[in-house]
Specification:
mainly alpha, 6 helices
């Protein structure tokens, strides 16, 4: 009985990993990206000084997005986060964050951003 339950669990775990696009490489999930960028919300609405935690989060996300598929996934996650989570966000302020944080970002946010075309 225990062996059967373990086998079912192992098969279920394998299926979940395959559906989620699991890889052995270290990449950030969209949830981790959202958590890292949450400190950027006040600046993206009101301006002022970019919080250190925002820069640290942004730098971490970009550092983890070394391969183009990772970068494109990070772009999609950030775009969805900005469009759905940050009401009253000002695109100019969002686009100023990378420069103020010393991050080279190969795209500008906006409604027409196509993340499938971003690359290093």
């Amino acid at each position: 009985m225990a062996r059967s339950a373990f086998a079912c669990f192992a098969v279920l775990l394998f299926m979940v990993m395959m559906m989620e696009g699991w890889r052995s490489e270290a990449t950030m999930s969209c949830g981790q990206i959202v958590t890292a960028l949450t400190p950027c919300i006040p600046y993206s609405r009101d301006g002022g000084t970019v919080p250190h935690a925002c820069c640290a989060g942004f730098q971490g996300v970009i550092a983890e997005s070394k391969a183009n598929p990772d970068l494109q996934a990070a772009c999609r996650c950030m775009k969805n986060f900005i469009e759905s989570t940050v009401p009253r966000m000002k695109v100019a302020l969002v686009n100023s964050i990378p420069g103020k944080c010393g991050v080279n970002l190969p795209w500008k946010f906006g409604p027409s951003l196509d993340c499938s075309g971003v690359h290093w």
